[in-house]
Amino acid sequence: MSSETFKVRLEPQDAIFDCAPDQPVLLAALAAGIALPWSCRNGTCRTCIAQLVSGSIVHRIPWPGLSAEEKAAGLILPCVAEPRSDVTLRQP
Ligand code: FES
Q1: Is the pTM of this model over 0.85?
Q2: Is 1 inside any structural domain?
Q3: pLDDT, tens digit, 9 for 90 and up, residues 26-70
Q4: pLDDT tens-digit map of 12-34
Q5: Among 29, 40, 41, 72, which residue's Cβ finds the most Cβ atoms within 10 Å?
């Protein structure tokens, strides 16, 4: 496993935390003491939904609870999203 981690910036709080490439962004935020909304943590409830402002992520499940339009608009579910670069997210 790579020890590389990425930087995640969270708006509007302007919080920054590290996230490993095999770690859900939500869990990395919680581990860093940053309170993000969540409920199911498995990509279905959409409580954690956020906008990907920059950078790239992959969802670790094939069908996260997002429509094709939402995905195209850059919305992600941080509880099942792993970073593939430094990323910036915006909470709605
Ligand atoms: S916490 Fe339910 S979709 Fe992320």
Answers
A1: yes
A2: no
A3: 999 999 999 899 999 999 999 999 999 999 999 999 999 999 999
A4: 999 999 999 999 999 999 999 99
A5: 29
Strand-pairing partners, residue 83, are 57
Which atom of ligand 1 is nearest to 39's Cα? 1
Q: How far is Cα 1 from Cα 85, in angstroms, rounded to an integer? A: 16
Residues constituting the chain: 92
Number of compact structural domains in the chain:
1
**Share of the chain residues as helix, strand and coil, in percent rounded to the nearest 5:** 15, 30, 55
Give the binding-site residues of ligand 1, using a 6 Å CB cut-off: 38-41, 43-48, 65, 77, 79
